[in-house]
Amino acid sequence: MFLAPSILIVEDDPKTAKLIGRFLSKEGFRTSRAADGGTAIDTFAAVGLDLVILDAMLPKVDGFEVCAVIRRTSKVPILFLTARTEEANLVLGVGLGADDYVEKPFSPRELVARAKRRFSLHGRALELTAIGFTLL
Amino acid sequence: MNVPMKLLWKLLSINSMAILIVILTIGLAVHLRAATYFTTLTKQYNIAPADAHAMFLQAVDRYLLMASVTGFVFASLLSLWLNFRLTRPISRITQAAALIARGDYAQRVTTRGCGEIDLLSTAFNSMAERLQQTDRLRKDFIVDVAHELRTPLTNIRGYLEGLRDEVIAPEKAIFVSVHEESLRLVHLVEDLLQLARADVAVQDLSPEPFDFASLIEQILQTFMLRFAEKALRVDADLQSPVPIVADRLRLSQVLTNLFENALRYTARGGLIRIRCERQGNLIRTVISNDVEGSLDLPDSLFERFQRGEASRSRDYGGAGIGLAIVRKLIEAHLGRVGIRRNNGQAELWFELPVGKV
What we know:
- The complex is a heterodimer of chains A (about 140) and B (about 350).
- Chain A is an alpha/beta fold and about 140 residues long.
- Chain A has helices at about 15-25, 35-45, 65-75, 85-90, 110-130, and strands spanning about 5-10, 30-35, 50-55, 80, 100-105.
- Chain A contains five helices and five strands.
- Chain A has a five-stranded parallel beta sheet, with helices on both faces.
- In chain A, strand 4 (about 80), helix 4 and strand 5 form a beta-alpha-beta unit.
- The longest helix of chain A has 23 residues, at about 110-130.
- The N and C termini of chain A lie far apart (about 30 Å).
- Chain B contains seven helices and seven strands.
- Chain B is of the alpha+beta class and about 350 residues long.
- Chain B has helices at about 5-45, 50-100, 115-165, 170-200, 210-230, 250-265, 320-330; strands at about 210, 235-240, 245, 270-280, 280-290, 335-340, 345-355.
- At the A-B interface, helix 1 of A face helix 3 of B.
């Protein structure tokens, strides 16, 4: 049976999280939510995910730490939500391993478009790997 | 102060040295040559004493001229050296000042020795340091404000876009939610204005004598309805009268912000305790309230845009400016303020001097 891709939304503002959830469900994605970094890491370990939407500024464990922990075990696409220009610079900096970012206040439609784009890129990369190409 | 005299001593010593050289040369000339002159002239050449005297004067004049030239050259060289020592650091400071005026706050001048110039350099450097710090705080502040604006704007923009594109159904709850977000922006703007006014308060207090305990009572009354809505109990022990000479309006602001915080951060059904008493020349007020276990209470809460860790989720609705205003106003009154955790309670205390009548 075909399962829709599953997306984890890590965002501490409940309204923003709900908003992103609605837009993604409308596009047929399955979504789950974590309100802080610790929960995000636990949720990620527990369930298989196809994309993580990660707020950079989170209480306790921030988005960058969450990203580092996820990258230790997984190549899942990570899309950052940033609220400061210097966070955006960090996201694209070397070593973090994030794939993309949108800056708040973002347009939800743009976020959805970027998420979809990640899937097509990621999917193609997986197909290539499957038939013997290595990308890196 | 002996330090500002240093330049004077330097100049004096230079002049004295020049004068000393002139006197020494003349003295030497007179001592060495005068006796020989007179003997030789009168005995050997039979020259009349009057002529001999004239020749002596001529010789003295000649040596005087030589000494003057030597002294002048020497003094000029010394003055030039001193001038060089003085003007070079000054022009360096001028250059640095020009660069700072253009916005390059990292400029510093290197100090050497221990004269007036070095005092000027030190003062100049601490001014530059202060400017750089103020500039950094200003930039941080703008970044913080922008960040605080982004979350409600994200929600307003996102939900409106959702309504427009019919991703979100136009239910009443959605409009209430978007309206709340716009109120967050309104509160942020109000807080920013308050903060700007608190900045001014430091130089602009209008003290008057009044009873601080009854001011607390009065502000507390305005909160009773909202406390009741959240089923909060209030235990106030105010030993009225507590006379104080202070800016009544500004202290009302302090109390309003503190009660606002207590209202926001006390768990439903919790207790708020208020104590106010005079201790010597200080008036100590303590407001303690039940808080949730996870709430951190670092002193940085008094910095702008800092909130207790658990409240970072913004469920509480504050922008983190209230306590920064409280600290500014209390410090303007030469008072102190702090917060600590005490058996599951947050205990905020502040001390104000009684003030002069």
